[in-house]
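Researcher: Sequence recovery benchmark, item below. Answer with residues only.
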């Protein structure tokens, strides 16, 4: 009676730019006797590991750190790569968008600096900020411009319509 021995070895490696690659090899063999199972399993595992480890060292294409982000104006995108975000619409609420733009305009803030600040803090551009992140950016803009001190805050209302924080 023949015994089937199936072995698989797989490895995944992380690469720069939140990328990774994986390589896997599977082998199926028949054994004539069960006496050889331990030896054959060890031999197959060693062979698979050696071959996968040898092949996975050839990483192929590794994307640069800013791959998939908006292409800077000074650098043209490769012809076969389309940007993920072209003319992105805002992810935050329309009121947050309006307030951010108003604070930038009224205080003559540099849009490039605000964009850079957003990327440093949230790892994404201003237009890609969700509502919570946009709220954090707005607070920073108020602090930068001193508008936070001049702003009149209305007491928040709880679920029962009563005042309070």
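Model:
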């Amino acid at each position: 009676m023949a015994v089937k021995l199936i072995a698989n070895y797989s490895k995944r490696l992380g690469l720069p730019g939140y990328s990774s690659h994986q390589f896997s090899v599977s082998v199926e063999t028949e054994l004539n006797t069960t006496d050889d199972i331990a030896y054959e399993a060890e031999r197959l595992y060693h062979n698979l590991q050696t071959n996968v480890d040898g092949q996975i060292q050839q990483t192929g294409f590794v994307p640069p750190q800013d791959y998939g982000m908006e292409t800077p104006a000074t650098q043209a995108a490769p012809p076969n790569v389309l940007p993920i975000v072209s003319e992105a619409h805002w992810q935050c609420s329309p009121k947050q968008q309006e307030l951010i733009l108003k604070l930038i305009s009224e205080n003559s803030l540099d849009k490039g600096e605000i964009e850079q600040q957003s990327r440093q803090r949230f790892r994404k551009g201003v237009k890609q900020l969700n509502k919570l992140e946009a709220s954090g950016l707005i607070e920073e803009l108020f602090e930068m411009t001193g508008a936070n001190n001049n702003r009149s805050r209305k007491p928040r209302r709880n679920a029962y319509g009563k005042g309070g924080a």
